[in-house]
Amino acid sequence: MKYALRGSMVILLSTVLAGCGGAARGAPSEAGRTDRITREQIGDTAYSDLYEMILALRSTWLRTRGVDTFGARPTEIQVYRDDVRLGGISTLRTIHPMEIDYVRYFDGVQASSRWGFDHGSGVIYIASRRD
Length: 131
Known about the structure:
Elements: H1 2-21, E1 36-38, H2 39-42, H3 50-57, E2 78-81, E3 84-87, E4 100-106, H4 108-115, E5 123-128
Parallel strand pairs: 2-5
Antiparallel strand pairs: 1-4, 2-3, 4-5
């Protein structure tokens, strides 16, 4: 009886571990990403501009984070559209959500390594809709 119980436990444990080990690992799904707003998430939006949309969906993207190491004041979050620097977050008010494919947020570290040290507060990157 003792050996039969032990054998059953081994089989049960093997089955559980085999089921857990088979899970696919890869890139997170678009739905679970907090650094991106996709065309599907925008849908037929009622927002009049990107600033309103981002404020409603990802308000943390619009917050300036402390002072830069190199200056006494914080840098402004920069906005890029299709690799062209537009300026600060006020430029988001000039873009309608239906004009874009996706919006992505780069934190200060990512933005500084990609665009330079004057991007320490981050970048909101806009990809225009192509259709």
